[in-house]
């Protein structure tokens, strides 16, 4: 469990610099933009690696906190459907990104809630709960800071079509094939 928590602290910590230390972030990026991005990426990747390792280890010795009804798997699957679409939205600006304003944060919240609905193990609650809390705090902080530009395609309605097709395609591949291979759980298998 320690690896999971350290990974979360590193990953969410570096992603929280703009929330809690925006001036520091801006000064570091102004001094050496490429160096800032490299350091940020290294810490985020190390955190992600530790999250994956820590979660895998914690699943070997699970602590059950709650059990949810089996029908919540369907609710979870439904909540997951727009996640890839929302995650891609900032890079393909269109109506979806304009309406949602912060689509990736919405994607993180949906991902976290959908997994908390079906995962009552301590490690899962820590993992998904931490991301949910982070996304809520980040969204609140976005109200008081200006958004940084994202390298994206020009704004177009066709972008919405592109991300819906790509998003549903990624969703299908992930839930039918990759989730089992990468996480070890087949989302649509009933027991």
Output the keywords.
single chain, 191 residues, 10 helices, globular
Topology:
Blueprint: H1 2-14, H2 17-20, H3 22-31, H4 33-60, H5 72-80, H6 83-88, H7 95-100, H8 103-118, H9 122-142, H10 158-183
Summarize the structure in words.
This protein has helices at residues 2-14, 17-20, 22-31, 33-60, 72-80, 83-88, 95-100, 103-118, 122-142, 158-183. By secondary structure, the chain is mainly alpha-helical. The model has no long low-confidence stretch (mean pLDDT 91). The chain starts with a helix and ends in an 8-residue tail after the last helix. It contains ten helices and no strands. Helix 1 (2-14) runs parallel beside helix 9 and helix 8 (103-118) packs antiparallel against helix 9. It is globular, with a radius of gyration of 18 Å.
Task: Summarize the structure in short.
This protein is mainly α. It is 73% helix and 0% strand.
Oligomeric grouping of the chains: single chain
Q: Please give the largest β-sheet.
A: none
The average pLDDT value, as a whole number, equals: 91
The unreliable regions are none
Overall 3D shape:
globular
Radius of gyration: 18 Å
Tell me the fraction of residues in β-strands, as a range: under 5%
What is the helix tally? Answer: 10
Question: Span from first to last CA?
Answer: 27 Å
- SS-based structural class? mainly alpha
SSE string? HHHHHHHHHH
Number of strands: 0
- Measured as a percent range, the helix fraction is over 70%
């Amino acid at each position: 469990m320690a690896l999971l928590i350290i990974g979360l602290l590193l990953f969410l910590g570096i992603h929280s610099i703009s929330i809690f230390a925006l001036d520091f972030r801006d000064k570091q990026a102004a001094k050496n933009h490429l160096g800032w991005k490299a350091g940020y990426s290294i810490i985020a990747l190390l955190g992600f690696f530790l999250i994956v390792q820590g979660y895998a280890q914690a699943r070997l010795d699970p602590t059950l906190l709650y059990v949810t009804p089996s029908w919540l798997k369907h609710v979870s699957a439904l909540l997951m459907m727009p996640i890839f679409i929302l995650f891609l939205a900032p890079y393909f600006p269109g109506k979806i990104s304009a309406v949602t304003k912060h689509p990736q944060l919405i994607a993180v919240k949906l991902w976290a809630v959908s997994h908390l609905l079906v995962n009552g193990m301590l490690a899962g609650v820590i993992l998904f709960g931490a991301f949910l809390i982070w996304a809520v705090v980040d969204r609140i902080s976005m109200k008081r800071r200006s958004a940084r530009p994202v390298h994206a395609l020009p704004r177009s309605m066709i972008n919405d079509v592109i991300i819906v097709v790509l998003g549903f395609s990624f969703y299908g591949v992930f839930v039918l094939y990759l989730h089992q291979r990468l996480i070890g759980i087949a989302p649509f298998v009933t027991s």
